[in-house]
Design goal:
By secondary structure, the protein is an alpha/beta fold. The strands form 4 sheets. Strands 6-5-4-3-2-1-22 form a 7-stranded mixed sheet. A 7-stranded mixed sheet has the order 7-8-9-10-11-20-21, with helices on one face. About 50% of the residues are buried. It binds zinc ion (ZN) (2 copies). The site of one zinc ion has 4 residues, from loops.
Amino acid sequence: MEAWLYILGGATGVRALTNLGASCYLFVVRLGKEIHAYLIDAGMESTDSDGAVSAVSWLAPQDLEKLQTILDSVGVKKIDHVFLTHAHRDHAAAVALKKIRRHLTHDSRIICTRPTAAFLPRVLYDQFNVSNRRKENLPYDKDDIEETLDRVHAVKRPEILELVPGKISVLLWRNGHIRGSCSVIFIIKSGKTEHTFMFSGDYATHAQLTTDGAPLPPDDIRISHLLSIDCTNCAEDVAKGTDEKTFWKREIIRMADDAHNTNKAGGWFLTSAFALDRAPTFARKLADLGLRVYLDGPSARKLWDIMESEDGFWCMGDRSVNANSEEIEILNAVGSALDSNRKVGAIVAPSGMGHGPVAQYMRELLPRENAMYGASGYLAPGTNGYKALRAERGSTILLEVTDKKFEEVRVNARCEQYRATGHSLRKSLVRRIGEILRNSRSQKPFVGLCHGSTPALDWVQAQLPEFHTFRQDRPEDRCIRLL
Ligand SMILES: [Zn+2]
Ligand SMILES: [Zn+2]
């Protein structure tokens, strides 16, 4: 038996100092004369992060170009299946690219959880629509998207799927990041030996509103190697030494307190969050904490409806985020929260990093001294949210108001970053890595450090001398011989 891992995504060189890159891995297994290849995630890079006007809004994983050469070099004709850990753009939006689909056979499936399958059309059509609007080179057309969706195999509960009878099976296992997200665990048998390889996906050990924190893998599955682990929050001690278990809740309460104070002083509170899972979550939590909430945008509403439908659930730990309540007004016209007939409250608008619908509100509210803008999570450099957070009060920033249209906006409002994160914090993450690998059959298990900037990967690597670590930002680690 032989096995290799190729990291096709992430970022290397100076870009890796601040960029996480897209998620994309090729996992190759040779059993006797048979050879099998699996792709884990196919995300798009974020091109906003240069701060400049990009030629296109999308970019494939950085080494996807090399896929053909890699497959040729290991003697693989086709990719057996593609696995998607969740429906975020940086993990799923590249799956409809011809550069990936041309390597699939008639029987190749895109395997993901039922909620991810339900969200996937939105991820692909969102990218298509943005590219269409910007009149740029399209990543794929509608036929490409439909052909891709026809391949989806939706997994309804965490259970073992047999891929190659008696030899290769896989378990999708809850990982706490967003509704429907999962780790991918390969169990490979060769004669009497068994090797188990885990890709964490974006990973949170703490509970959030829509889903519980990641449990350990089942006791009877002994993870040999951890081929990717999410290091998003490891560049700094975000929790400042406090407990991760309650951190998420505390950050939401801090946000709600600031929103209350802003409203009391007659000003608007604005927060931005990804339309998928996050926007409904923040709307619900802020309403529960006594605020008048306006959720802007039909897209967030549609995704909320999917989350609440049967397709939105797949495992224990998934929780309903009741959409029906008087305290949350869902708006159909973007920007209409600020209509003069409405009382001040908290606006939740989609887009995690300050583009799309929320940009309209930022243009209106950032110049107001009594308003407040709160970012709810990670901000990539160069994005609207990043600029607003770093601007000195009274200075101006260049805000991308709509696609490729920039305007100078003065920042008089208070800006604050809340870290209600869907990724584990660094101390509990390191503890968790040890727990996952505690029964490994390998003397020095591999741990692939991924989804993090170079400073984040540096920190985690220094904590794990007992493991054989490799990292996505290092050119010499892009191909790892595992067995
Ligand atoms: Zn994610
Ligand atoms: Zn991610």
